C-alpha cells in the first residue's frame, strides 16, 4: 500500500505565528519530523503572540531546529507527487507559503484536505475512527508527529476495510 503524503505543523500562534515543528509521511508508511529554526523575519512579532506551553524555547529552536532551506531541499526528495494531505489545509498553506517566501520561492505543492483521500467513507465516520485511533494509540492531537501517525493509521485502516 502506498501512503499519501500527510503533513502536519505546530505553530507558535495561529494568527501571525510561524511553524516550529513539522511532520510528514513517506510512501512506505514511515514519517519524518523536524523542529524548525525560525527565520529572522519571523521573529518580528514573537513577543506579541499567544504561544503553546508545549513549544520548545527559542534557544532550543535555534540549537536543534533545521533550517527552512534544508527542510525545503528534503521535501524536494520526499514529496514525489506534489500532493500534501492535511487536517487543516488553510493553516498548512499558510505555513508552506511562509517557508517558501523566506527564500523568494512559490509553493508548488497542492494542499488537500485529508478527507479527499477517502472516496467511500463518511467524514463523520472518519472523525470517529481518528478519535478512536488517537485514544487507543495514546496519540496527542496537538503534536504534529502524532497527527501524522494518526493519519497513517487511519488511511491503513480505511483501506483494509475496502
Account of the protein in words:
The protein is α/β, with parallel strands linked by helices. The chain has one domain: 2-Layer Sandwich (Nucleotidyltransferase, domain 5). It has 5 helices and 5 strands. The protein has a 5-stranded mixed beta sheet with strand order 3-2-1-4-5, with helices on both faces. The protein is globular and about 45 Å long. The mean pLDDT is 90.
Number of structural units classed as domains = 1
Radius of gyration, Cα only, in angstroms? Answer: 16 Å
Helix vs. strand class? alpha/beta
Which percent range describes the beta-strand content?
15-25%
**What is the ordering of alpha helices and beta strands?**
EEEHHEHEHH
Numbering strands along the chain, what is their spatial order in the largest sheet? 3-2-1-4-5
Can you identify the CATH superfamily?
Ribonuclease H-like superfamily/Ribonuclease H
What's the β-strand tally? 5
For the termini, the CA-CA separation is: 13 Å
What value does the average pLDDT take? Answer: 90
Number of separate helices: 5
Largest sheet: 5 strands, mixed
> Could you estimate the helical fraction of the residues in percent?
25-40%
Would you spell out the secondary-structure blueprint of this structure?
Layout: E1 5-11, E2 19-25, E3 31-35, H1 58-64, H2 68-78, E4 83-86, H3 89-101, E5 110-113, H4 123-137, H5 144-161
Parallel strand pairs: 1-4, 4-5
Antiparallel strand pairs: 1-2, 2-3
Amino acid at each position: 500500500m502506498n501512503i499519501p503524503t500527510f503533513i502536519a505543523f505546530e505553530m507558535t500562534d495561529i494568527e501571525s505565528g510561524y511553524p516550529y515543528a513539522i511532520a510528514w509521511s513517506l510512501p512506505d508508511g514511515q514519517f519524518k519530523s523536524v523542529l524548525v529554526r525560525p527565520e529572522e523575519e519571523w521573529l518580528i512579532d514573537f513577543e506579541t503572540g499567544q504561544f503553546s506551553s508545549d513549544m520548545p524555547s527559542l534557544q532550543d529552536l535555534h540549537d536543534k531546529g533545521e533550517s527552512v532551506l534544508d527542510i525545503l531541499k528534503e521535501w524536494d526528495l520526499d514529496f514525489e507527487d506534489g500532493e500534501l494531505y492535511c487536517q487543516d489545509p488553510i493553516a498548512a498553506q499558510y505555513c508552506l507559503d511562509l517557508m517558501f517566501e523566506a527564500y523568494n520561492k512559490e509553493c508548488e505543492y497542492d494542499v488537500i484536505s485529508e478527507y479527499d483521500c477517502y472516496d467511500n467513507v463518511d467524514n463523520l465516520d472518519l472523525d470517529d475512527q481518528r478519535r478512536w485511533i488517537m485514544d487507543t494509540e495514546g496519540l496527542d492531537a496537538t503534536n504534529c508527529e502524532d497527527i501524522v501517525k494518526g493519519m497513517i493509521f487511519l488511511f491503513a485502516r480505511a483501506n483494509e476495510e475496502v
